[in-house]
Amino acid sequence: MNIDDSPDMCYLPDMFAETQKIANRFRLSEHIVVYPGDCLNLLKDCPDDLFKLIVTSPPYNIGKEYERKLDLDKYLLQQELVIKECVRTLSPRGSICWQVGNYVDKGSIIPLDTILYPIFTGLGLKMRNRIIWHFEHGLHCTKRFSGRYEAIVWFTKSDDYTFNLDPIRVPQKYPGKKHFKGIKVGQYSSNPLGKNPGDLWIIPNVKSNHIEKTEHPCQYPVELIERLVLALTDANDWVFDPFLGTGTTIIAAIKHSRKGAGAEIVQKYISLAKDRIKQFLAGTLKTRPMNRPVYDPVKAGNSLTISPWKKRNDRGQLRIFDPSEDNERYVNR
Ligand SMILES: C[S@@+](CC[C@H](N)C(=O)[O-])C[C@H]1O[C@@H](n2cnc3c(N)ncnc32)[C@H](O)[C@@H]1O
Fold first, then answer.
1. C-alpha of residue 41 to centroid of ligand 1, in Å
2. Which of 84, 250, 310, 323 fits a 20 to 30 Å CA distance from 216?
3. 202-211: pLDDT as tens digits
4. Strands 238-241 and 259-264
5. Do 144 and 258 have their domain in common?
6. Among 212, 225, 264, residue to substitute to test ligand 1 (most atoms within 8 Å of Cβ)
7. What whole-number distance in Å separates Cα of residue 101 and Cα of residue 72?
């Protein structure tokens, strides 16, 4: 692939020129890098011990339009080459997060994180969490339960790693709860900043009605990566994505004053990534806000939640049952 060395400029005030420029090659002086080519070539230009967070969703080797399905062994060797370079370029206080689902072989599933785990630990990394990302939409299976989660496996290079809990706390279920014994009796027991979000994250996936959807078949949502950026990096740190797709990782990074770099081999996704980053810089990119509750069609009164076979009462009103609150009501529709 020919690499066009001229930077993509967004025409913004001079004082922001450096932070608003999308460079095609990695240099320490840049803030945003979208490398049009193989991630291993980009990684060659990156120094040791730099990136505070490397987060990606790699190809799953399932024959998507941007990948050639390989023997599993070959796929793992390819992943290992990239992961090795990622570990070299990872800050001693840094984290690697690999967001993966299942490899499917003749109907049999292999969770990719389970077979990638020995690669990470073999390179001396320690696993800190296996985060379950749960979403509600996807293919409807007929011969097994429909897949409604993927995993994010989080590893660190050392025991002394960045972890900022306060920026990613979520509201408590019972903020009014008080200590009932001991010296703090009567005082509120929960942290007013919220609680640790845990390792089960319920965040909508990017399907056709998602505000961030592009023509890429496998985008992850910005809010998923924002949480990792906020927890695992500080302002001005570098965030890197070897398999950049539509630039989601860079958007999550620069949204929180970090620097972002990534590689992508498919031209239409490179263009999409640059367009999205430019839209973000211009303040026009729509992203789903972090911590917005998942849409509940019953609570929202969506008429499609009413089963056509449901009966009306004798006043002609429809019965609506809200399973989350275990109650029923009648509405005029
Ligand atoms: C699962 S997608 C990532 C999507 C991304 N997380 C997003 O939100 O848009 C994986 C991407 O890796 C790209 N890719 C595959 N092999 C690559 C390589 N060797 N170097 C760089 N990118 C590669 C594919 O074209 C694809 O867009």
1. 14
2. 84
3. 999 999 899 9
4. parallel
5. yes
6. 264
7. 15
